[in-house]
Amino acid sequence: MSKLQCDVVRDLLPLYYDNVCSTATKREIEAHIATCSDCKMMLEKLKDQEYLSIEIIEKNKLEGNELKSIAAFWNQSKARAFDKGLLVAASVFSLLILVYLGLTQWNIVNVPTEVIRITDISQLRDGKIVYQVKMTDGFNVNQINYKVNSDGDVYMVPVRPLIKSK
């Protein structure tokens, strides 16, 4: 049987006291304590220390569980806030895209008649009429809306978006 040094025994005393060491270590510590008064006194100090009562331990466990539930709620609220932020950002982005397309692509503004010049009017063999339209203000016409009145007359109304392109 080997003889343990006091500093090794002092390191192992809490494990011995809590009864979580191996049986061989337990025997070695008991043999050492029987011969060493300093280590025996350290073990007595461990026994005399005030430990938490079972009620306090249970109370601490309950408080720990409450803190865990608060942490879980906090994490859920962070996830919800992120989802809401993502939804708001996507909505704002979509709105900006729609506004951009509305201003640059949606043909809603009638072109004033003063800037329209129609030239080279001719009739094809099949009866269709062709013509050349030029804008005198330098901007393009993206679309022409046709309106037919009750007499069968056709009116052409050139339109372009709010933001004109050359």
Report on the architecture of this protein:
By secondary structure, the protein is α+β, with helices and mostly antiparallel strands. It folds into three domains: 6-48, no CATH class; 54-104; 109-160, no CATH class. 53% of the residues lie in helices and 18% in strands. It has four helices and five strands, in the order ααααβββββ. The protein has helices spanning 6-17, 23-35, 37-48, 54-104, and strands spanning 109-110, 116-123, 129-135, 143-148, 154-160. A hairpin with a 5-residue loop joins strand 4 (143-148) and strand 5 (154-160). Helix 1 (6-17) crosses helix 2 (23-35). It is rod-shaped and about 125 Å long. The relative contact order is 0.08.
Q: What descriptors fit this protein?
A:
alpha+beta, 166 residues, two-stranded antiparallel ribbon, 3 domains, three-stranded antiparallel β-sheet
Radius of gyration: 46 Å
**Helix proportion:** 40-55%
Biggest sheet: strands side by side, in what order? 1-5-4
**H/E topology pattern:** HHHHEEEEE
Mean pLDDT: 85
Largest sheet: 3 strands, antiparallel
pLDDT below 50 for ≥5 consecutive residues: which ranges? none
Number of domains: 3
Number of helices: 4
SS class? alpha+beta
End-to-end span in angstroms?
101 Å
Tell me how many strands there are. Answer: 5
